[in-house]
Write a structure and sequence with these properties.
The chain has 17 helices and 19 strands. It is an alpha+beta fold. Among the domains are: about 120 residues, Uridine Diphospho-n-acetylenolpyruvylglucosamine Reductase, domain 3, CATH 3.30.465; about 110 residues, 2-Layer Sandwich (Alpha-Beta Plaits), CATH 3.30.70.2190; about 80 residues, Alpha-Beta Plaits. Strands 15-12-14-13-17-18-16 form a seven-stranded antiparallel β-sheet, with helices on both faces. Strands 5-6-10-8-9-19 form a six-stranded antiparallel β-sheet. A hairpin with a 4-residue loop joins strand 8 and strand 9. The protein is globular. It starts with 7 loop residues before the first helix and ends with a strand.
Length: about 500
């Protein structure tokens, strides 16, 4: 990566030129102003940027990115900062471009079932806007009440209902973005019927290494007519895992299948007064959704499966209030664990569903052997594990021991035929494990793709790849994407 001048006098001049791009008060430089931007939800890592730019329009974002290109100044785009992999961690020699003020829903078309939004729109706000038309936006990360669509796109967020509906990439139809080159591109559109390469699919999940999304066209879906949500308690985590296997093997396709184990349950009870069956080591949440007739038939089969899985108690939600209470306990789990420990790492590995029980047994064994508490919460339906590894950062070596356990879990996921990330991305947290999952040639190919979008590697550098450096583009003449006819120069 080409670095900007870091001499005090030279950098002061750069920041003065940057400040001239935006109205007064929208370049933050004071320590108190920048404190909130020094870290994201992975608080074990932090850095103070040179400045924080606060654009309010797409043109202002483009101007700031082009300034960074001209000055060879690294930049990091940021929404609400809910990344759990350090994906929006700033650089000490770069700037943060915060996108929260680009928060408009530009278009909502209930007939086409699409919404065109800016990157700072909060996930849940899309569903709120679509609800009067009987529609909703399906991806539902636990942080959906505060996380933004731009971040969801960057990290291909999932959520509890990804078993049935898929990830963010399954619901993004088009993207307008400014690349690290300063070029403005438009991929996809309002329809799934596209000709040629799937540039939109390539852009989703790029972790900010290509540039910044300015407009995102989202697919909206009809809201389910009926829900049936069940909470089942089990004496052991293995029993809960076996119940998941039985549900999936039956051919049922629930909207969501989630598991929480004892420590996570304790945290949810303390934080939001969630109610769970007493004497349980784990609870299983299964939610059916769809037309009333289908849910009614599936409910009979589900009840039979759960009854045969040796539960302590099966507790169906009797109404919408009880359903929301069940989900409130689950979605508060990550933040609630803060009541049990001053610090924790949220891991994000994936294993094949058939090996869930084996994976959980190993995690619990390693937790006992290391003396490090681990609260397991996960999307059981697609094998996405979220072990919350508890530690006290004030104790010497505690973070290192927690990271060692996290690394052991990630390597186990790869050995079982899974992945080192399901929805949180690589960021800085898992970049050293990328080589456990991909060969050197595969990583080099990824870096070349990244360089096609950002040859100076100024867009979110230091993330994803084991080395912070990426090869510069050697091809001369037209930009590769311009040759393909998918970018526009302004």
């Amino acid at each position: 990566m080409v670095k900007a001048s870091t001499t005090g006098q030279g950098m002061a001049a750069v920041l003065r030129r940057l400040a001239a791009l935006l109205p007064a008060g929208r370049i933050l430089q004071g320590p108190a102003q920048m404190a909130a931007y020094e870290s994201d939800a992975l608080t074990a890592f932090h850095a103070r940027p040179l400045a924080v730019a606060v654009p309010q329009t797409q043109d202002e974002v483009i101007a700031v990115v082009r300034f960074c290109r001209d000055e060879k100044l690294p930049f990091v785009a940021r929404g609400s900062g809910t990344s759990l992999s350090g994906g929006s961690l700033p650089l000490e020699n770069g700037i943060v471009i915060t996108l929260n003020r680009l928060n408009r829903i530009l278009r909502l078309d209930p007939e086409q079932r699409i919404a065109v939004v800016e990157p700072g729109v909060v996930n849940l706000a899309v569903t709120a806007a679509a609800a009067p038309f009987g529609l909703h936006y399906a991806p539902d990360p636990s942080s959906q009440s505060i996380c933004t669509i731009g971040g969801n796109v960057a990290f291909n967020a999932g959520g509890a209902h990804c078993l049935k509906y898929g990830m963010t990439s399954n619901h993004v139809l088009g993207v307008k973005a400014v690349l690290g080159t300063g070029e403005v591109v438009e991929f996809g559109g309002p329809s799934r019927e596209q000709i040629g390469p799937d540039w939109t699919g390539l852009f989703v999940g790029n972790e900010g290494l290509f540039g910044i999304a300015l407009e995102i066209t989202l697919q909206l879906l009809p809201r389910a007519e009926c829900y049936h949500t069940v909470l089942a308690g089990y004496r052991t985590l293995e029993q809960a895992g076996d119940a998941v296997t039985a549900v999936v093997a039956s051919g049922l396709l629930p909207g969501a299948i989630e598991i929480m184990e004892k420590l996570a349950l304790e945290a949810a009870v303390a934080a939001v007064h969630a109610e769970y069956p007493p004497g349980c080591e784990a609870v299983l949440i299964v939610e059916l959704e769809g037309p009333r007739e289908v849910v009614a038939a599936d409910r009979v089969r589900l009840d039979e499966i759960l009854a045969a899985s040796s539960p302590v108690e099966v507790r169906p939600a009797r109404d919408a209030v009880e359903r929301l209470a069940i989900w409130k306990g689950r979605k508060s789990a990550f933040s609630a664990v803060g009541r049990l420990s001053p610090d924790f790492i949220v891991q994000d590995g994936v294993v094949p569903r058939r090996r869930l029980g084996e994976a959980l047994r190993k995690i619990n064994e390693w937790s006992r052997e290391s003396g490090i508490r681990c609260a397991n919460v996960f999307h059981a339906g697609d094998g996405n594990l979220h072990p919350l590894i508890l530690y006290d950062g004030r104790e010497p070596g505690a973070l290192q021991r927690a990271e060692a356990l996290a690394g052991k879990i990630l390597r186990m996921c790869v050995e079982m035929g899974g992945s080192i990330t399901g929805e949180h991305g690589i960021g800085v947290e898992k970049r050293d494990y990328l080589a456990d999952m991909f060969s050197a040639d595969e990583i080099a190919c990824m870096q070349r793709i990244r360089a096609a979008f950002d040859p100076l590697t100024i867009a979110n550098p230091g993330k994803m790849f084991p080395s912070a450096e990426a090869p510069a583009l050697t091809q001369h003449g037209l930009h590769p994407l311009e040759k393909a006819g998918v970018i526009s120069r302004e």
